[in-house]
């Protein structure tokens, strides 16, 4: 796991080093630079050594000088790709470097390399033969990649903070991106908060013509549900066996490293299943597993993690904090985030990564299971919404919503009043917009109040509408999966994991996002993921083969913090002095403190935005274009 940066055009190694220094924590073990004055190509790299410490130095250049690469990530099937290349006459210099497999694989196969890869990656290759710079990002967007293009320059980096050190980038906020941030709780790719600065979306590559500096992004893969139809006889038992086999292989691939590897273990089904499979592969050594707990019972899962650790025989390390101690870590975390993600679970995730890094360099986790196998409550809420829409006329809905709005506010985890109010808010919109309306910090109406102008919900939620309507399956579970994979996973969950882990120089691997597991999930009919009121139905059947029912079927608990209470008691402050939007946010904060409304998501989103280094929100940034 590493950090990469580079540019084409005017500049020097000092500028390149300035960019990579800002992400040194992504790669504290080594650094490397390549400057080609003839082509104007500059490539920089910060390395966290995981595989082949002596043979994987970057930037890496082919022996004939035709290609050079900087790479962030891990290619889990590098061994089989290396054997395939060797069978075609390719010779390697390193012992077992996945970077060299990428470099020589691209030289041999070109863009046809991408469908062969099983892993997580963001890389840039200087292709002298085609006179281009070729960038690529993995299918789900595990590894970040930002870029900016102007008529005279092109720059890229693993993080916005590094990219913004290049003069080609704009520091001007994009008003639509800002509104989308408040609508979703994240900025959906390919947008960023800044004008003419972009994220390369998941499953995309980009070719930059070095003669013209014309950049052409290209989608090489996107999530699409293709459920098996008809379902063959005896499919349930066969699919349980297939899923377990695929997950077991995915876990085994992710245990390959030249450094210590451990496992996140919350005691929930996803991390417990991954940890149980991993424990089978570590041999004589016991698997190291990690969790954090909280002294407050409502936010603590540690007893479940300890239970699973005993069952699988892992060497479990638990760190117990008070939620107030957790709050003390915010000043350490927030100023280091260069793109806001309004997900308060980034705090406990950061604390977990910090805890694990004291013992290991790599950890595996359960990310992706909820998205692929319908694990979130909104999957179930879609059915309730359909029932409600058929039985409750529109005029009556307004009265129901008003009555529910009068329920007392509770700041407990996912309280009933919070869920009911959220659900009814979403029902003001078409089905394609239900999910972001339920989950986002601000509604279109509230954004209209903030900006002083009406907001077009179709424009605001355009990415969610595209994901919903672009799904070839008409089943709402499949369409919701498209939303969660293409947006929520890519732009919330994975950036949260990436930043939390990389700030601690820890690599996190996700077996559920193995392409073979994902392809299995794509083919799985919706009723095998959500059945009745049971989420992750087939996954739970598979887990029952390994774990006791008390673990598999216990109530889902998110990685939450009591941010609602913190805002209500004044322990969190928005820091609005002089801000052009202060009046709006002061009103929301006052309503929240008085218990008249629950604005926890919105207040957290505004606080996160205010922590971005060098970011100043101007009055014009509140206005629609």
User: If classified by CATH, what would the architecture of the domain at 2-219 be?
Assistant: 4-Layer Sandwich
Low-pLDDT ranges: none
Shape: globular
The average pLDDT is 91
The biggest beta sheet reads: 6 strands, antiparallel
- The CATH topology of the domain at 2-219: Glutamine Phosphoribosylpyrophosphate, subunit 1, domain 1
The proportion of residues forming helix, as a percent range, comes to 40-55%
Count of DSSP-assigned helices: 26
- CATH superfamily descriptor of the domain at 2-219: Aminohydrolase, N-terminal nucleophile (Ntn) domain
**Rg from alpha-carbon coordinates:** 24 Å
Question: Order of strands in the sheet with the most strands?
Answer: 2-3-1-9-8-10
Number of strands: 17
User: Terminal Cα separation, in Å?
Assistant: 39 Å
- CATH top level class name of the domain at 2-219: Alpha Beta
Describe this structure in words.
With 625 residues, the chain is of the alpha+beta class. Helices cover 40% and strands 15% of the residues. It contains 26 helices and 17 strands. It has a 6-stranded antiparallel sheet with strand order 2-3-1-9-8-10. The protein has a 6-stranded antiparallel sheet with strand order 4-5-6-7-11-12, with helices on one face. A 5-stranded parallel sheet has the order 15-14-13-16-17, with helices on both faces. The longest helix has 27 residues, at 476-502. The mean pLDDT is 91.
